[in-house]
Write a structure and sequence with these properties.
41% of the residues are buried. Helix content is 39%, strand content 18%. The strands form 2 sheets. It has a 6-stranded parallel sheet, sandwiched between helices. A 6-stranded mixed sheet has the order 7-8-9-10-12-11. Strand 4, helix 4 and strand 5 form a beta-alpha-beta unit. The longest helix is centred in the first third of the chain and has 15 residues. The protein is built from 12 helices and 12 strands. By secondary structure, the protein is an alpha/beta fold.
C-alpha cells in the first residue's frame, strides 16, 4: 500500500465514499465491494456502491446487495453522487476505462481515488494504490487491507462470507491462483463462521433451468476441440444470446468445463456482445493466458485465468485467436515431438 498512513488518517473522520467495480461484475467484484462497504460502515462513513452494469442474481443473497446502484440505469443520481463524495474506491480494476462512462465522470470530478486490485499493469490514476498481482483476488486483498487498517475486530461473518465468495469464484474453487497465504486467510474466514458447503450451494448450485440448457447447448453445439494445439473453444453469437435470453452472469463458469478434458491445456470462451467480442481464457500449467490477452486483446489477468476483448466480428476474432495459438509456448503438440 502506498500512502497507507495518509489514507488511514483520511478515514479517521466520517467521509462520503463511493465504492466502484468493473462492468459485468463477478463474484470478486461484488464480494469485495460489499465486504469493504460493511467494514467501512463501522467508521460511520456514508457509503454508496456503484457498478457500470448489473451483477448476476446468484449474488442477491448478500446483505445490502439491493442497495447497489447501476450506472447504466442510475447515471443521473450517480453523477451527482460522484461530484459530492470525498473519496472513490476502485476495486478489481486497474484503469478507469474498465468502468466506461462512470470512469469518465470520476476522472472529470477530480475526486481522490483509492485503488485495491490484483491485475497486472495498473494505470496511474489513483492517489492511494494497493496493487498485488500475486494475490488470488481483490477479495483476498480486501482481507489484507482490513488487517493493514487494524480493523480485525470488525471482521464478522457477513464480511467473511463476502470475501470468501470472491476468493472462491476467482480461483475456480481453489483450482488456480492459490498460495500458502491464501489458505491461511481461508482458515481465518472459516473461523468467523464461513460455511463452505453453504456458499458453494448459493453460488454454484442455484442455477435456473435455462442455464443448464445453455450449458448443454454450449458443450453439444458450440464446442470445438483443436487436438494439435491442446485447445478447446466455445463460442456464442448474438443470436444465441437472444435465443437463450442470456443475462448477466448466465455464462459464468462455462469456460472451465473445457479444462475437464485431459487433452485440453487452454480453454477459450468467446462471445459476441452488442459492440465487442469478449474473450475469456483459462489454462493448465505453464500456459500464460494473461500474455495472450494483454498482447492481442487489450486485456489481462492471471497466468491461468484472464480475459480481453476484440473489436473484430466473431468470425474474424475466432480466426485471429486460432492463428495466435500457433505461437503460444508449451501449447503445440508438435513442440513435444
Amino acid at each position: 500500500m502506498i500512502n497507507l498512513s495518509a489514507l488511514k488518517t483520511f478515514l479517521e473522520v466520517p467521509r462520503d465514499i463511493l465504492i466502484t467495480s468493473h462492468r459485468n461484475p463477478d463474484g470478486d467484484a461484488v464480494g469485495s465491494s460489499l465486504a469493504l462497504y460493511h467494514f467501512l460502515k463501522n467508521y460511520n462513513h456514508q457509503i454508496t456502491i456503484a457498478f457500470p452494469s448489473e451483477f448476476p442474481a446468484i449474488f442477491n443473497w448478500m446483505k445490502d446487495s439491493d442497495k447497489i446502484l447501476i450506472y447504466d440505469m442510475d447515471y443521473e443520481e450517480l453523477n451527482r453522487k460522484i461530484n459530492k463524495v470525498d473519496l472513490v474506491f476502485s476495486l478489481d480494476y486497474n484503469g478507469l476505462d474498465r468502468i466506461d462512462k462512470m470512469g469518465e465522470a470520476i476522472a472529470k470530478s477530480g475526486k481522490p481515488i483509492a485503488m485495491i486490485d490484483h491485475h497486472l499493469y495498473p494505470d496511474d490514476f489513483a492517489e492511494y494504490f494497493y496493487s498485488n498481482p500475486s494475490a488470488s483476488s481483490t477479495c483476498e486483498m480486501v482481507f489484507e487491507f482490513i488487517q493493514l487498517m487494524e480493523g480485525q475486530k470488525y471482521l464478522d461473518q457477513d464480511i467473511a462470507e463476502y470475501i470468501y465468495t470472491g476468493i472462491l469464484t476467482d480461483t475456480g474453487s481453489f483450482k488456480y491462483s492459490t498460495s500458502p497465504r491464501l489458505f491461511e486467510i481461508v482458515g481465518q474466514l472459516m473461523s468467523h463462521g464461513v460455511n463452505n458447503n453453504k456458499l458453494q450451494d448459493l453460488i454454484f448450485n442455484s442455477l435456473p433451468l435455462k442455464n443448464l440448457k445453455l450449458l448443454g447447448y454450449c458443450l453439444n453445439q458450440r464446442m470445438e476441440i483443436l487436438p494439435d494445439l491442446k485447445t478447446g473453444i466455445i463460442t456464442l453469437s448474438k443470436q444465441d444470446y437472444e435465443n437463450f435470453d442470456i443475462k448477466r452472469g448466465d455464462t459464468e463458469g462455462i469456460v472451465n468445463y473445457l479444462l475437464m478434458l485431459k487433452e485440453v491445456k487452454l480453454a477459450a470462451f468467446i462471445t459476441e456482445q452488442p459492440s465487442i467480442v469478449k474473450i475469456s481464457l483459462r489454462s493448465k500449467g505453464d500456459i500464460a493466458v494473461n500474455e495472450i490477452c494483454s498482447k492481442h486483446f487489450k486485456g489481462g489477468g492471471h497466468k491461468n485465468a484472464s480475459g480481453g476483448a476484440s473489436y473484430l466480428n466473431l468470425e474474424k476474432t475466432l480466426k485471429k485467436f486460432k492463428t495466435i495459438l500457433e505461437d503460444v509456448p508449451n501449447l503445440s503438440v508438435k513442440e513435444e515431438v
